[in-house]
Amino acid sequence: MDRRQQLVEGRVDPPRDGEVVQTELRHPPYAVVGARGNEIESAAAYLRDLSLSDLSSLTCRSYGFDLLRWFRVLWFLDVPWDHATTSDVQALVGWMRSARNPQRDRAAGAPEPGAVNPRTGKMTLSSGYAPRTINHTLSVVGRFYSFHAHYGRGPVINPVPVAPNRRDQVAHRSPLEPAPMMRRAALRQKVPKQDPRAIPDHLWDELFAVMRCDRDRALLASYVSSGARASELLGIGVDDVDWAGQVIYVVSKGSGRRQPVPVSPEALRYLVLYLAGAGTPGPGEPLWRTRRGAPRRVTYWAMRRVLQRANTELGTNWTLHDLRHTAATRLANDPSMTLPEVRTILRHADINTTGLYTAARIEDLFDKLQEHFAADRPVRTLAPGYDPADVAVVFGA
Cα separation of 234 and 289, whole Å? Predict the structure, then answer.
């Protein structure tokens, strides 16, 4: 069995050479470098074009990791990037379907991949790459070759298969119309439909109760009342809090604009308690600071660790993004709020995304289900004029 077939079968892993590094440039802000520290020029040209097209730096970073994954496969197969074929893409997909994702490594004693948490009902992440990650990598690699083909570089035929009919059908479709059923392009993975992962009220109370300080209580209360994303809320300063208006100003992940989002009085109350104990930061300083050592900004990973400690204590597997799902579900199912209002608060680009949170959850239907199970069976009655004894003789008891 040759290298390519071994890679398709997932029997070997390409060496994890190279890395994505941050540059001192604005265009591009990130670069893909090889094993010797040399910058991959073809990747740099594509990332520079993305940056000049007003895509965020985080998007360039994400695309850089997808390209690095692709170049590692090419280096392993000893194939120049401008001589790649569909068989090389097949090797990439086959490897990603069976390879271990280092970002999903677990500590000893952690639940098995794919196991369902008995308290939350959420499935533990698998140890490999998710179907969405594989599809995203294929999209990035396909656009990478389309970019170079525009300038006459690279292979004549894009090595990533496409579905032109699919693109034609969605090009002029109104978002109000139902999405048509279309076949996936070759090598694209089936992505299972997932319902929003909102935290039920009784489990939310347990989670909030195990927070160890006012800072963490203020953060959780702000997350679940504002629906802000994890990194958006952690990036605010004291000047971004409008105490009288009960709103905070965050820099939206997608648009990069500074936008107001509401917070609850409870969140502001815990924020006051936190600032009373930790001190009010100065202008330009971060609002959320570490509690030990020199004051530093609370990072995403630090807040993730706070939630991991709570999960260990409660036997749950909640994530920071579940807090946004919880806020969205509460708002969308509030009869006093309309869907466009909820969309404005959550800053969704498409109102259909907001509509996903109106789905009923089994845990929310517990009381109604108990009434259904306890209800008496309907009694069968006959129309006036019919003798039950005669009906029993004709049709049986």
Answer: 9
The set of residues, in sequence order, having a beta carbon less than 8 Å from that of 120 and lying 6+ positions away, is 199, 203, 316, 317, 318
- Distance separating alpha carbons of residues 52 and 32, to the nearest angstrom: 17
Q: How many domains does the chain have?
A: 2
* C-alpha to C-alpha distance for 260 and 255, rounded to whole angstroms: 13
Q: Are residues 25 and 122 in the same domain?
A: yes
* Residue 176 within any structural domain of the chain: no
- 270 and 159 belong to one structural domain: no
Amino acid making up residue 43: A
Residue type, 296: R
Same domain, 114 and 221: no
- Residue 131 CA to residue 141 CA, distance in Å, equals 15
3-state secondary structure of 186: coil
Largest separation between any pair of C-alpha atoms in the chain: 96
Span 234-258, pLDDT tens digits: 999 999 999 999 999 999 877 778 9
- On whether both 87 and 212 belong to a single domain, the answer is no
In the chain, the amino acid numbered 224 is V
Residue 235 lies in a domain: yes
Give residue 223's domain range. 201-358
pLDDT digits (tens, 9 = 90+) for 355-377: 888 887 776 777 788 888 888 88
The strand pairing partners of 237, in sequence order, are: 286
